[in-house]
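seq:
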Amino acid sequence: MQMNRKGLAVLLAAVLALGLTVAGCGGNAGDKTGQSMGAGATLSGTIKIDGSSTVYPLSEGVAEEFMKLHKGVQVTVGLSGTGGGFKKFAAGEIDISNASRPIKSSEKETAQANGIEFIELPVAYDGLSVVVNKNNTWVDYMTVEELKKLWEPGSQITKWNQIRPEWPDMPIKLYGPGTDSGTFDYFTEVVVGQAKKSRSDYTASEDDNVLVMGVSGDRGALGYFGYAYYMENKDKLKVVPIDGGKGPVTPSEQTINDGSYSPLSRAIYIYVNKKSLDRPEVKEFVKFHLTSGVKVVSEVRYVPMPQSAYQEGLAKLK
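struct:
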């Protein structure tokens, strides 16, 4: 029995030594793989992202892919709207701010006053999608002018037949982004004619999933949000072709990319704190976002930018 214990101890020691050798080899292989990506498998730390609900699915998807490769890194993605994200970004609370519009002068000044320098990186194209309930049988398209009359401050339109007489005498229930949303800013600017000017008697939320639920649950509803959320829920929503002056155009990868879905096509962005780029995990994440992460753009139903745009982004990192 004594010999058996000794033999077992020898065997365990040999297995342990072999395991350490294999682990050491695995570590070297991981380092080589990491070096080809510009980082080692030893990356660790936390990356904080917050902001636009429109950009959220993209950042979340890129974060998941990145964490599969770098298990020591934790990427958190918040959802406080473009304006809310910029507030946290300017205060130095997050590393990356997701935005569905360019940063405003006032937001830039606040960041600079707090010593925050940043890089602006466009990461995809989006087309704001106007949607109605799946069982809406009367809307075939809408003009930008009709949308303006419906959404402008002080609008008295409460029923569908007030837009077009042939449409039913049915109440319209409106759903849209909250005032901290970049989508709200963009929509009001290009449709109403002035950013942040909108009727206020609608159901607002920074979470686009809440808007999807609202429109899908009310036959008389109409709302708007990013293209990705429509595509993700197209089985229970009906998208409305928009006539910007050259005839009705339906949002699609092609019409968003070629600009014919006008004026509701736009770029979406990430803003990166320059100081955060001193941390290897943040720098590698941004590199990953602009290279391997580009495949996620199509997976979450947004439209990739030309390759040259991503190359310009990588050049900014240097």
